[in-house]
Design goal:
Length: 319
């Protein structure tokens, strides 16, 4: 039960007291939690903060540009932008098992992050966007997806390897409090209220082997879906919405010709806790518009389907 402006000041003072004159590194993902940590730390310690943003080639359309725009250009945060697309794609080549893909993406992230951190010998702290539910989750089960999620997002093991102290300024906050804090710190509403995005990104939304050309098609289809959801005022009524690339070809017609191209599935769910979820009953007119736009604008996709599976028995992601 606290008041936000006071909380902001308290949080800032606490960080200053903890960190003193030392330097801090933060892995900025573009997600809500790490974004709020970046804004808070920048406010508290300014130039003592360096963020590392790793583009793994599996981000959403223009995501890297948006992160650089918001943090580096608008707020003046020091952000090192690493384009590691080639490295991630190289290691994912020929790999189609979902858990194997997750492991590779997590491992390569640690690799890239570590290499960047070693270029900052003055850093003494590693900041992470751990929030209260993460703390509870990791106190419980040591296996299963909850742990996988946490270990990717919050790069477990890194502080020890890098010999850094851990700074977790959101540790006591629930998600809605993190969002309020983000708004109080001046972050854009679209960033603070963005749907969650899994650590492995499009890597688990391209079924089977991940390829850069598939990721490029998927990014464009996904962006159209999200644009139209926002335009129809459905974005905030869904908990998560995205496109999935199916590496399956089907026949279509275009003009006088026959096409033989890939399929995209649309997924939109409503949920309180992401443990169970309902598929969103989006208006047919909205689905129709999204489908038309994807097929007309994204050459390489000639069929769009809508996923009407609940969780359980399906999961929210397809892998
Ligand atoms: P599922 O597909 O298990 O997803 O119903 C539940 C929630 O978890 C997210 N998710 C992940 N997040 N790394 C993450 O950081 C992962 O490997 C991962 N797998 C699923 C998913 O997007 C949904 O919000």
């Amino acid at each position: 039960d606290w008041n936000m402006p006071d909380y902001v000041n308290e949080a800032i003072e606490k960080v200053r007291a903890q960190v003193g004159q030392e330097e801090v590194i933060l892995g900025l993902s573009g997600g809500v939690d790490s974004s709020v940590v970046a804004a808070l730390l920048h406010r508290a310690i300014g130039e003592q903060l360096t963020c590392v943003f790793v583009d793994n080639g599996l981000l959403r359309l223009n995501e890297a540009e948006q992160v650089m725009e918001t943090f580096a250009r608008n707020l003046g945060v020091k952000v090192i932008h690493v384009d590691a697309t080639e490295q991630f794609m190289g290691h994912l080549k020929g790999v189609s098992d979902p858990e194997a893909k997750r492991k590779i993406i997590g491992r390569e992230f640690v690799e890239v992050f570590q290499a960047e951190a070693q270029k900052l010998p003055n850093a003494r702290w590693l900041a992470q966007g751990t929030i209260y539910p993460d703390v509870i989750e990791s106190a419980g089960s040591k296996t299963g997806k909850a742990h996988t999620i946490k270990s990717h997002h919050n790069v477990g093991g890194l502080p020890e390897t890098l010999n850094l102290k851990l700074l977790e300024p959101l540790r006591e906050l629930f998600k809605d409090e993190v969002r309020e804090l983000g708004i109080a710190l001046g972050l854009p509403h679209e960033m603070v209220y963005r749907h969650p995005f899994p650590g492995p990104g499009l890597g688990v939304r391209i079924l089977g082997e991940v390829r850069k050309d598939f990721a490029d098609l998927l990014r464009r289809a996904d962006a159209i879906f999200i644009d139209e959801l926002r335009a129809a005022d459905w974005y905030d009524k869904t908990s998560q919405a995205f496109a999935v690339f199916l590496p399956v070809k089907s026949v279509g017609v275009m003009g006088d010709g026959r096409t033989y191209e890939y399929v995209v599935a649309l997924r939109a769910v409503q949920t309180q806790d992401f443990m169970t979820a309902h598929w969103a009953e989006l208006p047919h007119s909205l689905l129709g518009k999204v489908s038309n736009r994807i097929i007309n604008e994204v050459r390489g996709i000639n069929r769009v389907v809508y996923d009407i599976s609940g969780k359980p028995p399906a999961t929210i992601e397809w892998e």
